Amino acid sequence: MGKPEVITPKHTAKDYKSAVKPVWCPGCGHFGVQSALFRALAYLDLPPQQVAVISGIGCSSRLPNYTACYGFHGVHGRALAVATGLKLARPELTVLTVGGDGDGFSIGGNHFLHACRRNVDMTYIVMDNEVYGMTKGQPSPTTPPDWDSKIAPGGTGINPFLPLAVALASGANFIARGYAGDPNDVARMLVEAIRHPGFSFVQVLSQCITYRPEEKEWKHSVHASPEEPATTMVAAAQRLVGEDSLTTGVLYKGERLSYTAHIHPVQRSLAEIEESFVL
Amino acid sequence: MGKPEVITPKHTAKDYKSAVKPVWCPGCGHFGVQSALFRALAYLDLPPQQVAVISGIGCSSRLPNYTACYGFHGVHGRALAVATGLKLARPELTVLTVGGDGDGFSIGGNHFLHACRRNVDMTYIVMDNEVYGMTKGQPSPTTPPDWDSKIAPGGTGINPFLPLAVALASGANFIARGYAGDPNDVARMLVEAIRHPGFSFVQVLSQCITYRPEEKEWKHSVHASPEEPATTMVAAAQRLVGEDSLTTGVLYKGERLSYTAHIHPVQRSLAEIEESFVL
Amino acid sequence: MNQTIPTAEPITVALMGSGGAGAITAGSLLLEAAGKAGWYGLMTRSVGPQIRGGEALAMVRLAPTPVNGHGDRCDLLLALDWENADRFTDEIFLDADSLIIADTVGEPPPAMLAGGARLVKLPLAQLSKGIPGARPNIIALGLLAGLLGLPNELMASRVAATLGRKGLTSADVAAAIAAGSEAATAIPDPPRLASPAPVNGQRWNISGNEAAALGALQAGVRFAAVYPITPASDLSEWLAVRLQQLGGHLLQAEDEIASINMVLGASYGGVPALTVTSGPGLALMIEALGLAVTAEIPAVVINVMRGGPSTGIPTKSEQADLNIAVYGLHGDAPHLVVAPLSVVDCLPATAWAVQLAEALQCPAIVLSDQLLGQARTICDRPSQPATAEKRLTAAAADRYDRYALTASGVSPMAIPGVPGLQYTAEGLEHSVHGTPSTRARDHLAQLNKRRDKLLQFDYGAAWAESEGEGDTVILTWGSSTAPAREAAAQARAQGLAVKVITLRLLSPTQPTAFAAALAGAGRVLVVEQSHSAQFHAYLRAHYDLPALVSVFNRPGPLPIRPAEVLERLLNWR
Amino acid sequence: MNQTIPTAEPITVALMGSGGAGAITAGSLLLEAAGKAGWYGLMTRSVGPQIRGGEALAMVRLAPTPVNGHGDRCDLLLALDWENADRFTDEIFLDADSLIIADTVGEPPPAMLAGGARLVKLPLAQLSKGIPGARPNIIALGLLAGLLGLPNELMASRVAATLGRKGLTSADVAAAIAAGSEAATAIPDPPRLASPAPVNGQRWNISGNEAAALGALQAGVRFAAVYPITPASDLSEWLAVRLQQLGGHLLQAEDEIASINMVLGASYGGVPALTVTSGPGLALMIEALGLAVTAEIPAVVINVMRGGPSTGIPTKSEQADLNIAVYGLHGDAPHLVVAPLSVVDCLPATAWAVQLAEALQCPAIVLSDQLLGQARTICDRPSQPATAEKRLTAAAADRYDRYALTASGVSPMAIPGVPGLQYTAEGLEHSVHGTPSTRARDHLAQLNKRRDKLLQFDYGAAWAESEGEGDTVILTWGSSTAPAREAAAQARAQGLAVKVITLRLLSPTQPTAFAAALAGAGRVLVVEQSHSAQFHAYLRAHYDLPALVSVFNRPGPLPIRPAEVLERLLNWR
Amino acid sequence: MNTITTLEELLAHAHALESEAVERYEEMAEQMEVHNNPELAELFHKMAAVERKHVDKVEHLAGDNPLLRLAPWEYRWQTQEAPESVPVGHSHYRLTPYHALSLMIACEERAQAFFAEVARATPDSTLRTMAAQMAEEETHHAELLRQWRSRYPEPEPGWEVDLDEPVSQE
Ligand SMILES: Cc1ncc(C[n+]2csc(CCOP(=O)(O)OP(=O)(O)O)c2C)c(N)n1
Ligand SMILES: Cc1ncc(C[n+]2csc(CCOP(=O)(O)OP(=O)(O)O)c2C)c(N)n1
Ligand code: SF4
Ligand code: SF4
Ligand SMILES: [Mg+2]
Ligand SMILES: [Mg+2]
Questions:
Q1: Maximum Cα interatomic distance, chain B, rounded to a whole number of Å
Q2: What would the pLDDT profile of C25-74 be if each residue is shown by its tens digit?
Q3: Domain C6-194, CATH class in plain words
Q4: Local confidence band at B84 (pLDDT 50, 70, 90 cut-offs)
Q5: Residue C163 exposure: Cα atoms within 13 Å on the Cβ side
Q6: Ligand 1 atom nearest to D314, measured from its CA
Q7: Do domains C6-194 and C205-380 have the same CATH topology?
Q8: Which region, left, alpha or beta, applies to residue D520 given φ > 0 means left and ψ of -120 to 50 means alpha?
Q9: What gap in Å lies between CA A130 and CA E155, rounded to an integer?
Q10: Residue ID of nearest Cα to ligand 3 atom 2
Q11: Contacts of C260 (CB under 8 A, 6+ apart)
Q12: Has the ipTM of the complex gone over 0.90?
């Protein structure tokens, strides 16, 4: 990492924190993601009013209210669509979408696919706890197939969703995985993700201590990727298909042009358009 | 393929054709897919009443009404969900889902992801013409980014969706690509797909002569894959990411167990369940 | 030229053909040429289930005064061929005064002759053979020019302008038109158009869908996210090009749920935004519309109704999405529903809906329908939106409460980027600040606020349109207005005083204005195009109606006809 | 034991505590023990916004006769602590006759003492310290046993059975209960329960959500696809296990759109199927419900209502999804809406809905709510579904017309697998055969059929429940029934004759039966828990009401109380 | 791991270590407020105040020299976060003072270890002295906390058990 950067930011992490107190269970990994986000924003020195944090529904999706940025706590699974509309309408804002694995990969799966593909310049942070926390512990797409729960006694029997591989196949331009227990590392990824043009996807393993207490063990099992980020889809596919899902780091950095919104400068006035109807 | 099998089927292709006349434009590729399907079913000698053909909305999705099988012409984009419910409720039926690229990859994207992942034993045939035929020629997820249309003048600027790569990343167990201009080849894939356990996905390039007349050129550009199907996800990923999207053949055959529906034999009577409420 | 005396009545011409005969193109050209010549007009079309090469019918009504709907009968049917003509027997009403002109090949279905129409056969195909590039439909246009008294040159110049690109020379066009026009002279006693009045001001040629889109642009919409669906896609397609020109953007989203949520994102960002759809798409947007209500985000959905339920009859019109539009949201979710009442009104009605949505920070549904949206009209230049309501934005403050309780119920809305006003748009029930709350008093305060801002707003006279006076009142909405008005005019001619009230603002309800409008009414006839009389049930639920109420409701796919309404006026039951 | 004379009235005990104090567990155990001892009871709960460690309140009402709702006041509040007790001041009505028992540490919020309640402090935490594994909530249960006259042994055995797993020995439990019970003797003049009547027949301990699920199973449901949502997930979770045991299957789908479409697939396959959701999920299912109407596929949606609009107040009850349930579909889409009117009625009402959906080949929405669904009751064994309507399936035929026009409007439905009956379930408008059609006559025939099959069906007496007789009629539905009936009983005690009519079948409407039920009514009070008086508007739209109608509507999150209704009965306005 | 080589860097680390501790303790105090554990809320607030004093102290030590600020990931902690921050997963709403103090002791011990390692690894004597001094202080803090903790009994196993189920929201 070379010589430490010396920074003199105008903002510190707590400038991004609102007065609303989280309802998250003490010990929830989402606190770590929150810290990481605040640290990343402070590092980037982004004025809070220039940042919009968009979410759906879930414990993780409560984050916008806890930030001092502009926030949007929408409906379940649709955050990426909201964020897309916002970014296209207001390209100068830094648009972050946050949420959970249920919100993003289950009900929100279609928007995930198409946001990756469309490659609008924004960052998507999924706080993945491999469970539905908010609704009392149902399996999510990333839950292991044999995890026993009330709604799927004996396990779902369904192979877990591979968010990073799907993001790659769908066209995401930046793919990383972090661990909520290491907020500084996550902050680093977020800084890179926000700076990288196009659609950046950061999965953060974030333990649900209430429904998945075994996830406390993640601190022993996650491990940083020893490799530099892949830069071609083929190389990345090699890494992301069949990996162990516990490797952290920036895993792919693509070079696709971000969706420009095709927003052209004004070429014609409304009066001219009206003229076209004149007989 | 070795020595030709000698078969004495009770059914011929026309046993699968209904009396309803297709509204498709003469020259539409969907006719080719229809022929291929009838040939495959005849080859498999499946009684028409044991086959259910489920679709959404689109030119392609009109197919069920043209078959003599049980059909379901549902709403736009939801065919895979309908098919999943049907197959779980009636595992002995052969369930085929058919539709277009708009139906399956745009509005239906989430069900596509999760059907691949869930790996219920059925076959999904997408008649991909890289356009919305039924609604007059808007771009679909597979449309090239520079294809000019009324709704996206100058092109969408969005990279095409890679259905096969996404299917692989999401967990489909069988992946093939055919070309509607070669119905016998498609029939072969469909036979394999139907026989293969789990979720089988067959993309068929099927020209829309009305809105994408240039697709007539496909007959010159499609080419059969010289390789045997990949059998591991890593090998398949190598092939499907960054390929030219015109390679036909069975490209991947996985060995994942199909979703068993966890349907256990009856363990308890309703009376016993009621008993549990007695104080 | 023929010598018959032109009638003062509008005349209706049906152009029919199949498999590429070009009936629709001919219809549009007739409309345009007549418009150029000073007539008003309206054209609708009806097609078979095929994507291409299907049977098609263009109905063109022309008159010296504005035309808002079709009448009951067809004066002139021009059949380019008779393939599948059966499909249209329900739509073309021919009587003994009607004239059918057809090619010498083929025979009309008996149903079309049953009314006693006069059939004239002409060798249209034959005539076109001699002229390079000409087709029977161009000959037919010449014929119509001749019959209706449109100058040949005018017709030829319209045809050349439109079809010139397709490889037809001006000389060939002129020859084809002349050939057709010449053939017209052989037809005795054709229907004739009253001469147009001198044209004052601009005339426009516009479809309802284009008008709606233009209205939205006039009201400030600069972002749209849509998903294609019949019969709304042409609106989106028109808009896509113009938004691009105006520096805005239209995005085709992955589905309708994405579209409406993108609209909410853009609007939250301060840019007026809309989406366009039809029944099945509206059904998918319901959840997000509830979010717009709760989080108080302006948003507009133009819903171009088609035959329902489910996929239904996509190419045909029906007024059966009223229920979902006014009642479809879960929870108590007050919002705006505005319905244009004519093709031209699509413009100001949509502009108004955008303004109301912006001013009231609330979603607005514009209930147009296939009949209005896909009809094309020659009309006077539509009026600009009457008002210019805008969004109330927030300025810097010590403490910003996004959902502050104000006298009007409207709270200033902060636009991202402005320092010091950061807040979270919230779909959970919330305090004035926007923090989630489950408290009874917060819930009640916000429910009251969201209701009262709509109820207290002064909608002015635009909430409804009234025509005529009388003890008998027709209550109607949307595309049923034209046949209702035409029936009322006919009833008046027969001595029955009828007033027609059309509601433009369907939600929120306007009980006071309604009572005033209905004051003195002895009896009411409700007219609507739905099977379950949705409009009537809605009126009953929220308004006081006189004791004598009769309901004329009929589902699609056929448009309501003036005669049906007149019959109900004359034989009250 | 104390010597006070037991009252005949039900008594209400509130158990409150925070941060893991176990108030809810204690409430359930109290209910269970009282049930074992022969009482009827009802328990509801109220919680803070935290997932864990939040403040919680269990309200337990016990009586010698069946209990369907809470009353107006709380006899006894047992506060394990006072953290965030403020949240509950709106829900616990304490008056001068109320008794508050609390730990010695902490003070009640002033609002809780305002009514003059007597406060007794006991060292609950202290008492628990001495007993290994014991907690204040177990001491509290002993205390309640002592106060209410429940045998210590019975209470101890319930506690041991439930908490034994958590490492508590029977002896310790017995000691803790005894310690609490002993402490009770120090409290003079406690509220006492009237002795239970001898138990005839079985008593059940069941929640409304469990009852609904069981009803569905009884009516033959063997497939479910769901997506979790509060307050409906516990229904799905209960069902998942039982379907597995019965050889059926419950699948958690990727979203609500998938759930309902999977249900349609299973049902098309011949297996009765349902899904379970709440407002936001229902909003997403609307499009597919329209498909079920058009393609005539039986399907059931249990919608457990919560506070709306949008994400709203998920843990609280409201009756504001009536509009979307009855009117939410686009196009003219007649379907069934059934509402259980008590916790126990969730069983037969849901069973009935399944049967109706099957018999009428139509989607049915069951409108339950959080109050009914998450309440737990001690009740008599619920009755089995009264009828056993089934799907009419098709037998071999020469030509099979799936949508044949029959006298009943119901056409025999072919089940895949049966040879010769292959057809396509169709969401486009269609001919009798199921082939897409845009023809007016096909559309009308199928619209009529889909409407008439619902209208012609004989729903018998189950469409509504009536209680009492009188000139004054309360019209209500769902969970508002209990407070309405309690208010009516109190009014009767004051000499006002009141009849309470609860509609169980909300759609289709039953004008004839309704008119008969209302015959002779002088005035009507409509009671409902919605801000916009949805039920009243619905009644007005479709039924004839007497001239004198008063509406008591109030939104959530607080349940409607009998006193509020009584006040409106006594002070008519 | 590359070590700290300048005084400037040491102060930067000390500053971040203490200020992040303040943030984490405040966060935990809020958690306890929300989850109805007022005793612990007070304790964590108190601890945050103590740490805030430590921040002031570092700022005082730095004098007029502006504090070096590093990117979050550039700090050379031996732990995933700054050593005096309680790791995110270690909170619980039923924590008792005994637990809280144990967590705090662990923080001080990690901080001690951090400074001790800096002292050990540096060839620079000024730096060594200052780091050693800081390590010393952390030892002292830990000791004080241990004394404090001795006033509380060690909670019985099962302290975290909540008889009520978690609540389903939204
Ligand atoms: C349309 C809709 N369906 C379902 C729900 C219920 N719901 C709320 S949060 C949630 C899942 C949350 O899981 P996840 O996104 O993983 O977040 P976590 O709580 O685990 O952080 C669900 C299903 C809802 N609010 N809206
Ligand atoms: C909910 C909904 N949205 C939109 C439509 C309109 N629609 C009908 S078919 C179609 C796209 C068809 O494209 P594709 O699936 O590729 O089929 P193709 O016609 O090309 O075979 C659309 C958008 C609809 N019927 N329902
Ligand atoms: S339930 Fe799980 S995800 Fe939700 S706040 Fe608690 S620990 Fe975090
Ligand atoms: S529009 Fe295209 S896809 Fe549709 S039937 Fe015609 S050729 Fe085929
Ligand atoms: Mg999760
Ligand atoms: Mg297509």
A1: 75
A2: 999 999 999 999 999 999 999 998 898 889 999 999 999 999 999 999 99
A3: alpha beta
A4: very high
A5: 25
A6: 25
A7: no
A8: left
A9: 31
A10: A208
A11: C225, C275, C285, C288, C289, C299, C301
A12: yes
Element (H, E) at C159: helix C152-163
Query: In terms of residue numbers, what domain contains B112?
Result: 18-275
Domain E7-149 sits in CATH at: 1.20.1260.10
Can you tell me the distance from the alpha carbon of D275 to that of D282, in angstroms, rounded to the nearest whole number?
10
Question: Is residue C229 within 8 Å of C253, Cβ to Cβ?
Answer: no
Q: Please state, rounded to an integer, the average pLDDT across all residues of chain A.
A: 95
Q: Is B180 among the domain residues?
A: yes
Q: Is residue A11 included in any domain, yes or no?
A: no
Give the torsion through C-alpha atoms of C311, C312, C313, C314, to 10 deg: -20
- Count helices and strands in chain C by DSSP H and E runs: 18, 21
Nearest to D41 by CA among D194, D155, D205: D205
Q: Name the amino acid, one letter, at D363.
A: P
Ligand 3 site residues, Cβ closer than 6 angstroms: A 24-25, 28, 30, 59, 129, 133-134, 208-211; D 51
How many percent of chain E have pLDDT more than 90? 88
Nearest CA to ligand 2 atom 10: B58
Rounded to 5 degrees, φ, ψ at C415 are -105, 125
For A78-95, the pLDDT digits (tens) are 999 999 999 999 999 999
Q: Residue A12 domain-assigned?
A: no
Q: How far is A4 from chain E (nearest CA, A)?
A: 6
How far is residue D505's CA from residue D514's CA, in Å, rounded to a whole number?
11
Domain spanning D460-570, CATH architecture: 3-Layer(aba) Sandwich (3.40)
Question: Look-up: residue for tokens 């797909």?
Answer: B193
Terminal alpha carbon distance of chain E: 45
In chain E, domain spans: 7-149
Nearest CA to ligand 3 atom 6: A25
Q: How confident is the model at residue D6 (pLDDT cuts 50, 70, 90)?
A: very low
* CATH number of the domain bearing residue A179: 3.40.50.970
- Written in H, E and C, the secondary structure of chain B is CCCCCCCCCCCCHHHHECCCCCCCCCCCCHHHHHHHHHHHHHHHCCCHHHEEEEECCCCHHHHHHHECCEEEECCCCCHHHHHHHHHHHCCCCEEEEEEEHHHHHHHCHHHHHHHHHHCCCEEEEEEECCCECCCCCECCCCCCCCCCCCCCCCCCCCCCCCHHHHHHHHCCCEEEEEECCCHHHHHHHHHHHHHCCCEEEEEEECCCCCCCHHHHHHHHHCEECCCCCECCHHHHHHHHCCCCCCEEEEEEECCCCCCCCCCCCCCCCHHHHHHCCEC
Looking at the 3D structure of chain A, how many domains does it have?
1
Q: How confident is the model at residue C1 (pLDDT cuts 50, 70, 90)?
A: very low
The C-alpha atoms of residue D236 and residue D240 are separated, in whole angstroms, by 6
Omega before residue D557 within 30° of 0, cis: yes
C538 at D interface, C-beta within 8 A: yes
Which CATH superfamily hosts domain C205-380?
Thiamin diphosphate (ThDP)-binding fold, Pyr/PP domains (3.40.50.970)
Look at A27 and E88 and tell me if their CB atoms are within 8 Å.
Answer: yes
Q: Quick check: E163 pLDDT over 50? A: yes
Q: Which of D227, D265, D250 is nearest to B261 (CA)?
A: D250
C429-475 pLDDT per residue, tens = 999 999 999 999 999 999 999 999 999 999 999 999 999 999 999 99
Query: Residue C6: CB partners within 8 Å, gap ≥ 6?
Result: C149, C192, C193, C194, C195
Residue A6 lies in a domain: no
Sign of the CA dihedral running C139, C140, C141, C143: positive
Please check whether residue C282 is in contact with residue C258, taking contact to mean a CB–CB distance below 8 angstroms.
Answer: no
Neighbours of chain A (3+ CB pairs under 8 A): B, C, D, E
Contact (CB<8Å) A26/E87: no
- d(C-alpha B242, C-alpha A254), whole Å: 13
